[in-house]
Amino acid sequence: MITPTTLFKCLSDETRLRCVVLLHKQGKLCVCELTHALDLLQPKISRHLAQLRHSKLLLDSREGQWVYYQINPELPAWVFDILDVAADQFATHAKQQNDTSRLQTIGDRPDMNKPCG
Q: Which domain holds residue 58?
């Protein structure tokens, strides 16, 4: 299972922190939603998501042609306590507010009949 050192290493990178906070607040997002919300290129987002998945902080699932990510629900309660505090504190930052606003502009959000992006 995840250790405190691993969790804090995951959250120490701003891109990973932004992804984790959005996922913690939204529940489940696909790569294209995260790419749009963070306004970053897909390879960069995918690289960070792979690191988070490797640490067991995130789980991924394929639904049609999309890969969705979510916080691993099997994590210990102390991890969720830390994520709650991080999300609350980060919510006042301009980058997080912009990420959330951009995510909301996607509209219907992935339509299983159209390519993501």
A: 4-73+82-102
